Amino acid sequence: MKRYITGKILVILIVITPLFAVNSCDKQEKCGCDGDVLFTVDKRLMNYSDLTVLSEGSTIYFTIGYDTYYFCNPAEMYTELQKINSKDQILLTGDVFWDCNYVTQAGQSNYYYYYKFYNIHVTELKSYLYGK
C-alpha cells in the first residue's frame, strides 16, 4: 500500500513539475509612442538633411544604419525644424519605443530583420551652433 501511494505521488510530481519549470513568462515591452521606453537618445548630432519630412510635417523620420526612427510628434517638431537653418547641424533628444507595425511583422515571420523600426518622442530639436 505504501509503495502504491509513493508511486501515485511520483507520477503526480512528474506531471506537475514541468508546469512550474517552463512557466518563465517575461514581460514584453509595449510598442508605440505610449509604450515602454527602450532607450533615450540624448543630444544626437546629425545633419539637417538626415531628416526626411513628408507632407509639411505630417511624417518626419531619420535613419541610422539599418534603423529607422519615426517621430511620435511630427507636427510639433516640424514647427521647431522650420526655425533651424537647413545648412545647420542639429541636436536631437528623445525617448525611443518599438514601432508597433514592426513588432507585428517581426512576430509573424521567422526571417531575421536587419532593418528595425522605432518611434521616437522628440523632446528637443535645436540647432548645433558650435563655433558660430
Structure description:
It contains three helices and six strands, in the order H-E-E-E-E-H-E-H-E. With about 130 residues, the chain is α+β, with helices and mostly antiparallel strands. The protein has a six-stranded mixed sheet. Strand 3 and strand 4 form a beta hairpin. The chain is rod-shaped, with a radius of gyration of 25 Å. It starts with a helix and ends with a strand.
Tertiary shape: rod-shaped
- Uncertain parts: none
Q: What separation lies between the terminal Cα atoms?
A: 92 Å
Return the string of H and E elements: HEEEEHEHE
Task: Look at the helices and sheets and give the structural class.
Answer: alpha+beta
- DSSP, total strands: 6
Annotate the secondary structure layout.
Elements: H1 2-21, E1 39-47, E2 52-54, E3 59-64, E4 67-71, H2 74-82, E5 89-98, H3 100-107, E6 116-128
Parallel strand pairs: 4-6
Antiparallel strand pairs: 1-5, 2-3, 3-4, 5-6
